[in-house]
Fold these 3 entries.
Entry 1:
Amino acid sequence: MKKIMSGGVSATLGLGLCFLVTSVGAQNAPTASDGIAKYREMIADGNPAELYEAEGEQLWKKAAGSKNATLEKCDLGLGAGVVKGAAAQLPRYFKDTNRVQDLESRLMTCMEVLQGIDPKEIVDAPFGKGAKKAVEAVVAYVVTSSRDMKINAPMKHPKEKEMYALGKRAFYYRGGAMDFSCASCHDDASKRIRLQDLPDLTSAKGAALGWGYWPAYRVSSGEFWTMQRRLNDCYRQQRFPYPNYVSDVTIALSTYLAANAKGGVMHTPGLKR
Amino acid sequence: MKTSQLIFRASVLCALGLASISGYAQTAKAQAAMDKAIVASFRDEGIISVASITQDETQALCSDPKMATGKAGAKQRAAIEAANMETILPPYDGVYLGDWKEGEKVAQSGRGATWTDKSSAVNGGGCYNCHQISKAEVSHGTIGPSLLGYGKTRGNSAAVVEYTWGKMYNAKAYNACSAMPRIGHFNLLTEKQMKDVMALLLDPASPVNQ
């Protein structure tokens, strides 16, 4: 890993958080995506997210919680226990909770109902730690089982349409000290911040690039990031307050992105800067 | 904000209300309901409070893509620009240009104003996140236009100096729904920092103008 990361590639990969980067100092600087493409080639099919995936599969099958049960009866939308293809069809409306749920909020429901795990424990844990870490590993397992499938979140139920509308509104909602909305950074395919290309998430193609590659293993932080975490960090950069984990706005944004990305391909888990 | 400013803003709001056709009022109502749900999803963290995303009239108008561009919102946008123009204050001592070397540092730094920053942290201008500015810095964004050779091509007449100060102070005075933050208006930079960035753009000795 160390070796791969040396030289020109590390200059681009190591850009760090986009607001903290300084000069790369090359003449024709490759963009961050050029760098990551090279890195992907070098490690071929291996994605460090596989470690999370393997752990997630174990957690899926392991009895846990006060009810000492596994997640094997968890209904992710395609029926109890069906994992294959489920992530490609989320977020969606669930009758039992009467809510539109993304993968993470749905897993929390399963952990609560089947295993007796307190959702508050998950919400309150920092990303990458404690009860949240377990959810993240299971996310890696579930999204890997939708790899190469078509993105196809249903948009039929009135609550799904409502969530889409809310997500669209949230996408354009400007506020805070910098007047930013998601659209400030993501409504034009030709724009970039420093050297990081920004997909146009309002178009089918751009949304597929965004949605289809997340959750992802992030090379710069050496961690697996779920979609909730991706959105959380974008809101941080947006100078917004902290979005509560699995809050309406985060699920609505995912609903909006997934619907825009319909017909695109799931490349999950992605590999990102 | 000055009282006259507040009154002016209130009148802009009224004008907006009167100007809206019923269809727009309808969507505005639906939007207001959604905005409540959006804000309810956040919590205070570090230096960023939930209250900070309560919208002013500029943010409210520009959150509707139909109003942010195109004909439908043209009148409202003009009113918004006028209101923002009123907020612009010249430098306290009338001196617009500082030290371009310091300005380069300010333009480079994109730090500050996130929930992971301390209140004592010095903000950066984040200019390179969006603009090409000096030739030496190839890691620049493209959300804004290139500012390479800015002073060389425009000169530094009083009009150019005032416009550049104004644009940085409050970009929405010139383009209601600009992607550029209102740097002076929201105190993102100090007056000294802004003067230094001004010199980066306008000082003939600055590398931007070589």
Entry 2:
Amino acid sequence: MENLSHILSADMLFMTLRLAIPIGLAAIGGTICERSGIVNLGLEGMMLMGAFGGVLGSHITGNPWLGIVFAVFIAGAMGLIHAVLCIHYRTSQTVSGVGINILAGGLTVVLTRAVWQVDGRSGAVERIPTVTIPGLSDIPALGALFTGQSPYVYLTVAIAVAAWFVFYKTKVGLRLRAIGDHPQAAAAAGVNVKRYRYAAVITSGMLCGLAGAYLSIVHSNMFINDMVAGRGFMALAANIFGGWNPIGSILASIVFAFAQAMRITLALDIPDQFIQMFPYILTLLVLIAAGRKARGPEALGRMED
Amino acid sequence: MKRIADYLPGILYAFAAIVLAILVSSGIMLLIGNDPLLAFTALFDGAFGSVNSLANTLSMSIPLMFTGLAFSYAMKGGLFNIGGEGQLYIGAFASTVVALALQGAPAVIVMPLAILSGMLAGGLLGGFIGLIKVKLRVHEVIVAIMFNYIAMLLTSYFVNGPLLAEGSMTPQTERIPDAFLFTRILPRTQLTTALYLGLVVAVATYFFFKKTRIGYNIRAVGENPTAAKVSGVNITATTMLAMGLSGSVAALAGITEVFGKHDRFIDGFSPGFGFTGIAVAVLGNNNPFGIIATALLFGALNSGALRMSHAAGISSSMVMVVQGLVILFVATPAITRGIFKAVRVRRLAHGKP
């Protein structure tokens, strides 16, 4: 019995990790973007482009690692579009995000059809293999964390830690956070607000690309229409639930993923829809509870500078 | 009083955005080896080529009229209602439940009752988002996105479980009795009298914002909340009302789909009408008649998509690309303005006025 619960918990842990990775990466992207003061509702569309880009890259080169490069590049380009529209042209950030989602929803299907001649899904491509880290995998109990895992597990942890470090331990992070709260003051202090914002929005696109590629060439080996299925919006919720903070974003993603993993592993007697609703209700409750005290960037979505 | 001439710049920008979107999507088609001319000719033919395709175009524009009009109610009040999707699901669901519960009762009573219940459900959801916005200062976009998923999943739970039609393999409710459905304008098409409802709501929207006190207040809050507050407008009530009306009009999109096309509530029946409605309203410049025109355009795109796909060998989702580009271009008048300017400068350089 004890043995069973142990397997169950190890299973749970890994499944939670797998489900949390794409949400967490995109959520960190959302955090970086929104900390610069730009709202990003296009996370969903950028992830979708990333998912497609990953498969396309793997298909063309036969090398899934280059697939990731493609994904990051293509989703980063979507980030650039959002950045140019919002920063240079002062387009409504919300409308731009909605437009990017619609555009990506159409473009990925059109391109999939163009490359594979079918609507709805791509052909099978090479996927990123799992890795076992020699030495570390032999550690008792903890060894499982280093055995047959996707490299994305370590990548995500590294990115979260790096984002946290940059945010709170470097001048760049300090400036970025200042821009999100008081853009004029930052500009007056000599910070190039535009350059920081461009970098932040493009980085968020690139992280969405990584997240999307995880869905298509790590978790799966093909692109399927709308395969992101709302994870971009869930990432947005995780960013808010996590308090616009990279570590908070990752932890929130883990909480959301844990709820889903529980449903899958424990076959709970709760209707699927309610488990799926959990992240949104939780975020809503946190927002309502925090209310005026919710600690988002103060100048989020405003472009008066 | 605005004259037609005052609307011209807006119409010009909208038109330029459409042209730009068509040009860019033609470029994409050329890049992937498709013939854009063939594609757009087939699309036009598929949307307007026969009485049936025209009816299909009209019928496909109906939900977009409602979601577009819905968005404009909030936008006039300075609010961004991205929650149309959730509101149309909850509204359609409430209407379906009422209609199914009152089977056998006279249609003259049930139909208005069902429609009003749905509008009330969508309106309450919208109004609640407005309340959270004013009282807790939480941005309406975030709250509305959360409610989109909650509403969609809640209705999904019911039609997969307690309200699942007996023996049905797909998650859907029992069929709604024929007497309660919208009447077909043309037999063997999906064009129903819901179209008239859309036009009536558009005209009503126009007069609401032009002639009524509440409509005026909503616009005042949208344009300058501080000034509105000083002149005695109740910001809380007005915000809730703008979002509530927005929600109830969005609900009509779902109600007319269920009572005009599917004849039952089907799980996840909306392909994002709530989001496309935002594009429709932005392109229509939040003017009710602009929205009707834009809804017709988007309806035509959706209706001609299949023909285009067959003729040009391209995915029918190409129309989504066009729609996505249209919304980006129209929301960015600076791009079109830049192009107009460049053209003028070149013409001046050639000595033409």
Entry 3:
Amino acid sequence: MPRYAMVIDTRRCIGCHSCTAACKIHNELPDDMVYNPVTTVGPVGIFPNLSLSFLPLLCMHCDNPPCVDACPTQASQQREDGVVFVEDSKCVGCLSCIMACPYGARHHNHATGTVAKCDFCKHRLAIGKLPHCVATCHQKARIFGDLEDPESEVSKLVNGNRTVRLLSELDTQPSVFYIY
Amino acid sequence: MSKNVDLNQEGVQVKKSACYFCHQNCGVLAYVKDNKVLAIEGDPEFPTNQGGLCCRGNAALLHLDHPDRVNYPLKRVGKRGEGKWEKIPWQQAIDEIAARLQDIKQKFGPEAVATAGGTQRTDDWARRRFMNYFGSPNGFHNAHLCWIPTFMVETAIYGWCPFDLDIGNSRCLVLWGQNPGASGMPEMHHIKELQDKGLKVIVIDPRFTETAAKADLWLPLRPGSDLALALSWLHVIIYEGMADDDFLTNWCTGYEELAAHVVDFSPEWAAPLTWLTPEQIRAGAVMYATNKPGNIQWGTSVDQIGRPAGATMHARALLRAVTGNLDLPGGDLLTGPSKDFITDEEMEANDVLTAGQKAKQLGSDKFKMVTWPGYQRIADLTKKFWGKAPTAEWMCEAHPPSVFRAIISGEPYPVKALLVSATNPISSYGETKLVMEALRKVDFMIAHDYWMTPTASLADYVIPSAGALERPTITSSYGCADFLLASQRAIQPMYGRRNDYNFWRDLGLACGQQGNWPWETVEDAYFDKIKGLGYDAKTYDEFVENQRFHFPEREYSKYKERGFATPSGKVELYSSVLEELGYPPLPQYVGPTENEIDNPELAEKFPLVLTTGGGFMPFHHSEHFQITPLRYLNHSPYMDINPETAAKLSIQDGDWVWIETARGRIRQKANLTPGIDPRVVFTQRGWWYPERDMRDPVLGGCMESNANVLTTTADVDCDPFSGAWANRGLMCRVYKAEQAAEKEVC
Amino acid sequence: MSNKHQSWGWMLAVDFFFAGAGGGMLVLAALVELFGNSRMSLAGNLLGPAFMCIGCIFLIFELGKPFRAWRVFMNPKAILTVGAWTMSVAIATAFVYAAMALPAKAFPLNLLPFDPIVWRDWVWAGKLLAVVNLITGLVVATYPGVLLGRLKGRPFWTGPGIMALFLLSSLVTGTAAHYLCGFVTEAPSVVVWNALPGVFALLLMFQLVLWIGYLWIKQSGATENEAAAARRWTSGDRSLAGKGAFLFLGTLVPLVLALLPNPAAQAVAAALVLFGGVTMRLLVIKSGDDRTYLPGEKRYNLRLPNGDEAFLHKSAH
Ligand SMILES: Nc1nc2c(c(=O)[nH]1)N[C@H]1C(S)=C(S)[C@@H](COP(=O)(O)OP(=O)(O)OC[C@H]3O[C@@H](n4cnc5c(=O)[nH]c(N)nc54)[C@H](O)[C@@H]3O)O[C@H]1N2
Ligand SMILES: Nc1nc2c(c(=O)[nH]1)N[C@H]1C(S)=C(S)[C@@H](COP(=O)(O)OP(=O)(O)OC[C@H]3O[C@@H](n4cnc5c(=O)[nH]c(N)nc54)[C@H](O)[C@@H]3O)O[C@H]1N2
Ligand code: SF4
Ligand code: SF4
Ligand code: SF4
Ligand code: SF4
Ligand code: SF4
Ligand SMILES: [Mo]
């Protein structure tokens, strides 16, 4: 069984929002929904001594996902390969999962009343393709793969110990790793 | 398009198409069934994007069948700008337009018909071919702002423009007013990868951009002061012993004159002009000169600084020469035009236009570099040397502001018809009030576009254009590269749309140009172009499917055998071609178009330095504002202002502010950022609001936030070489707007 | 639309209020039954589970998909599921318990040919139900606090403190509600009746101290996000409601009034306590809008459309 993970190399990211657009367009998200924003951090400092970086986000597919625990209906689930997703037909729209997710990765779909989120493009994984946001990133700042496979690029990067996880103090154990 | 479409179903074909939402022309794989595109993705085998696509590329299918697209020829039935249209058949539109053009030709001469274009929205040799056979020299684009003057000035000096970088072997890359982090994304990852291997990157940009943030050295100069910087780099390199003496003595003329010319242009001299410290200036020169081979990448900024533009291009070109970075491995390559395939110029029929008509080209008396006088001189030289000339469509054009003025005044002669194709001049040409007046005034106007743009709203006919998925594309840097990348159409044009090529061809046939248009389809023409390459392809599509690219073997230091395509056969540091045309043979210092030193009274009224434009995501000039998922990511215009300056003006982040120059004022929202000098502001370009009323006078709110309301095209503000006008390095003032832009909220 | 409404709304706060007060009433009634050998007023005993029912209704309307509400019983690991089950049991047992005091002659029982409340005189049943109600009441009174306290990404809530505050508030509001019910139907034994104002005064004192402590701890809290959330109560946009409506009008004033030996003043105090309870929950729920934002996220969200921009609602011109 694979264990999917993403490594985000912020040194490569140029904040172009292509990943955001690709996800919105190809996954046909409602106009007002963004699964994977890329935030701008900075410029920090005083002209001309500055630094600037970009932070691509998405659901962290936590190994210890508080959103799944919080869901009273079991609409929020985690697959064995780590993918956390919402089974729409079971969701009552109680928003507990939204409130439980520390990463802002869940979104109330005001049209349907249910909650939606990044599912690592599991429909693409099923046909052997990369998630849209990964495939479209011309800077190769988003790297996707299987942590169980020691030869995968993500394994090498994660085991190379140069990665960190967001809000690691919360013990959510994200499957999304960052290189700064 | 649907998330769940099965791409493996029977009958799905994968077409090797392209994106044309910018000149990068990223490779696209289109999944097609029954002339419908089911899905698209980046082509992993394409050398630039390598499977990636930017925001716009991803939106291709939303663009392809957007409900706001113009899908059939429209004929105006109400008053101009009233928004009343009648759908008419293609041939009727062509016939009526042709009849009108012939009538104007008869009464006022063919030169009374002008065409306006954008920059490489599509390849435009067919437009030139039409105009040449029609007899008018007055085709133009706003390409004056975008590489063309650079191409011509550099070609004058060393016989071609070194736009092809051998970046893989380079040790230093100067991004001079270029921001690939937002404007040339597919190219940016190469830079990052090479940086990891030791490539030094210098960014010369007043803003702390996506690219500057990753640079080894960032030089935030005063907008428009690039010339002072270039001159003092020349000074440092020559006087601090970093010049390539061997190259200079053997392959250049005029070294002594140049050295004498720049003796006073020390970093200390340039510092107050550029707002950089002498140390910063020196550090840049040293980094570039000592990390050889190195490149200076073209950026569009220098083309847009107005009066000092030509001299700046000249000085920048000399930097390559004094460091000996021309045509060597890892340097700036002088490939020349393609020897292998038929170039765009060869398909333009430039010989058909008579010398008498050429002489009538508007603006060619004032601005010689990219009009017939300069073009002819340079084309003769390159033909002699390379056997071919640069593309005339782009490199040899009427001066746009002069045409607009001729429309308004009838001087020096009347211009009665304007065929606007693949441009939205209200948004992207300079000094919008002038453009607007001309568009309202011109007797006859057609717009050939995807959308009912503000410009199209004022037209008599709107002709629907087919897009990148509906036509084949050849990418070859304005027809001047020695390589080409070929893509095929994914589907036949939808609805009543036609390719740009077919528009010009059909119009030509209707204007009596029978016999001059041997290629019925674009593919026919392109096949002609490439069939001499020796690949085993029987059709253009076959070439795309099997080959797709043609990259000739790179040859370095060709000059060692053949010299350069200049009168002397050497790099002419002291340029005889410029001198002949009446320009200074060495780059004379000229201050920024508007500046606090030369115009203190102006600076008192307009104390801040303005620079307009620079690519930003997810838009391309005036395009894509209709595509909701893209617009959602960036829904209103922002201008950059330093927090210190904003505080003095009581402006807070997100406030609507007015930006005003001597030409007018516009509204954008304030983006407070320390990434810009407190004395400088930057406005975004291209903004209009397709959600608003498209009828005159609202015209999609096209004056509201449009940076070009602020820019200047007065002859004295233009580059004397090329006539390029001034978008960057102007004087302005900024103050808080009491209201949001109209109808921002409905 | 827009990303700006991505958190719980006022109906959930109202649910928490009714459920909490109901739970508190059950706890109080059970304690009186078990240790005071007495009963609260019939109205009070009926109102407890009725409050919980009202809470449930608000909860259901808060849901994006009200018709699927039954699905909330599905995940035993989720606090909300635990709450839903407990509340259901509590409602049932509390009504069974309250029914013991329902006069057989009263409407609608008098229409029946027999007395359906066969357990009316089973003393042991009263005690047993009281034990159950004590437990379920405590759970219902506490679980909203537990729910919020476990949400790690909402700095104003995180930690066990909020649980104590909710339990306390449930007990105060429950006591107040019982007191007011004593005016509607026969009050419980004099001892209990006289003790109630004192009890809610005491609880209010705790509430005051605990809340001041809570805000102080949050404000000097571990993270900037916690501090910022708390500052909104003490000096920011929520300070009027927080300090004025809840802490002053809903806590301090009733504390003083409750100590006056005057049933009218005490009734006013009880009413104010209920008002304070709702206000507090509304504010607490609102305070959950502020997440632990990731770097750059706040500005990113600020720059997104509000939802009323014309381009989002374009009708063809
Ligand atoms: N102030 C300021 N002005 C600038 C700039 C700046 O930085 N600052 N930048 C300048 C630069 S670099 C450039 S390149 C120009 C760009 O200027 P233009 O190239 O004129 O760009 P647009 O104004 O967006 O107009 C392009 C129009 O062509 C249509 N179009 C696109 N593709 C096709 C096609 O294949 N066929 C047809 N028929 N129509 C098509 C689009 O829908 C759009 O309406 O603007 C210049 N203007
Ligand atoms: N997203 C996006 N990408 C685009 C386009 C687009 O519209 N949007 N347009 C395409 C086109 S047509 C072109 S030509 C290319 C252009 O792409 P680039 O050559 O990169 O040019 P710009 O992005 O226009 O401007 C680059 C930088 O010049 C800086 N600048 C402003 N004034 C000055 C100055 O006086 N001196 C110097 N040295 N720098 C200055 C700006 O801050 C800006 O960051 O981008 C292409 N790519
Ligand atoms: S597509 Fe890649 S480079 Fe662009 S914002 Fe997303 S992660 Fe960053
Ligand atoms: S990031 Fe949020 S939504 Fe995603 S798994 Fe973690 S807690 Fe759940
Ligand atoms: S909103 Fe839906 S997915 Fe989220 S916790 Fe409630 S039922 Fe589960
Ligand atoms: S993995 Fe798929 S769903 Fe998740 S952010 Fe990326 S594109 Fe969107
Ligand atoms: S618009 Fe984007 S995807 Fe299209 S060619 Fe340009 S960079 Fe490539
Ligand atoms: Mo351009």
